[in-house]
Amino acid sequence: MAWQIDSTHSQVTFSVKHMMVSTVKGTFNVFSGEVEIDEQHPENSWVVAEVDAASINTRDARRDGHLRSPDFFDVEQYPKITFKSTKVEALGDNEYRVTGNLSMHGVTKEVTFNVEYSGQVRDAYGMQRVGLDAKATISRKDFGLNWNTLLESGGVAVSDKVTIELDLAAVKQAVAQAV
């Protein structure tokens, strides 16, 4: 049985350089997914996830509206961002490399996340929980997110490089014990 990503205890965040001197961070507030973890044979593990692109939140309504527009995510035409793993590699010390297909804005590219597995625990309600932290850096232009504007200083308003960070908690229903 796969673990369900617990969106109330998880975050999907990104960061990108703005005006080449500061970093803008944002989140996607609506997402879901499943994770299968095989601790004995990590290569049998997998993940599938989906993000609602319109749920982007950078704490600036005007900027968020621009990011939802055809200049960036074009959420009317491409409402979902998806990831499906194709390979999981154990690196040691609870570190993994998870490679898969990231699809957004009508483009699918292979992306590799560096993942730290935090282990499992049973919560106060009898639910088994797992924690994972993942990070990847992508080129937004690889996904057709090309909008930009030149600055008088010679730079650009928005960097091509985007860092994606996932802080995930996942849960699986406790198995009923026979009496």
What topology, given as strand order, has the largest sheet? 1-4-5-7-8-9-10-11
Shape: globular
Helices, by number, come to 1
| Quantity of strands, as a count | 11
Biggest sheet features: 8 strands, antiparallel, barrel
- Please report the first level of CATH classification, the CATH class: Mainly Beta
Structural class comes to mainly beta
- CATH architecture field: Beta Barrel
The number of domains is: 1
Q: What is the CA-CA span between the terminal residues?
A: 22 Å
CATH superfamily: Lipid/polyisoprenoid-binding, YceI-like
Structural Rg = 18 Å
Strand percentage: over 45%
Helix content: under 10%
Named CATH topology: Lipocalin
Overview of this protein structure:
- The structure is a single chain.
- The longest helix has 8 residues, at about 60-70.
- With about 180 residues, this protein is mainly β.
- Strand 2 (about 10-20) and strand 3 form a beta hairpin.
- Mean pLDDT is about 90; it is low at about 150-155.
- It has an eight-stranded antiparallel beta barrel.
- It contains one helix and eleven strands.
- The protein has one domain (about 5-170): Lipocalin (Beta Barrel).
Key terms for this structure?
179 residues, mainly beta, Lipocalin, eight-stranded antiparallel beta barrel, 55% strand, globular
Offer a concise description of the structure:
The protein has 179 residues and is mostly beta strands. The protein contains 1 helix and 11 strands, in the order ββββββαβββββ.
